[in-house]
Amino acid sequence: MPGKPADLFDPECPSRDVLELVGSKWSMLLLCTLKNGPVRTGELRRAVTGISQKMLTQTLRDLERNGIIDRIDHAEVPPRVEYKLTKVGHSLSRLMKQMEHWIVDHYDYIVASQGRYKPHHDHTEDQMSA
Asked: Model-level pTM?
């Protein structure tokens, strides 16, 4: 849709792909990790515990393809590759850092809310199955 402005509420708009990428937990954690400068792949994997090598590679490629990070290949033996934020990536990482702080600040409240939550019974399901 070149020439049309981004519309996140339009399911056909490619901006939804950007939303999906930047809204993923792995992207958020990687962007927070890259906030302080270039980081090697192995360091990223250790910092973002729980991410598989496949998901790390895929997320890094997606972030690079979208201009959010740069891949730096030092062409050394043994190979040394680092990733760093682009200018756009820095602006996004600031937002992600704010999100990280929000989650940490409200974590106890959210966990308590989850514990108190009682699902509502949907009567329309009963009517449909009758």
From this structure: 0.81
Q: What percent of the chain has pLDDT over 70?
A: 92
Take residue 12 and report the two structure tokens written for it. 């056909």
- Alpha carbon 48 to its chain centroid, in Å, reads 12
84 forms beta bridges with 70
Name the one residue in this structure whose structure tokens are 């040394």.
80
Span 80-123, pLDDT tens digits: 899 999 999 999 999 998 999 999 999 999 999 999 998 887 65
Domains of the chain as residue ranges with CATH: 15-115 (1.10.10.10)
User: Please, are residues 33 and 41 in contact by the beta-carbon 8 Å criterion?
Assistant: no
Strands 39-40 and 81-85: antiparallel
Tokens of 114: 């989850």
Looking at residue 1, its pLDDT comes to 44
Q: Distances from the Cα of 123 to the Cαs of 82, 110, 117, in angstroms?
A: 55, 27, 18
Taking the C-alpha atoms of residue 105 and residue 34, their distance in angstroms, rounded to an integer, is 22
Determine phi and psi for 76, rounding to 5 degrees: -115, 165
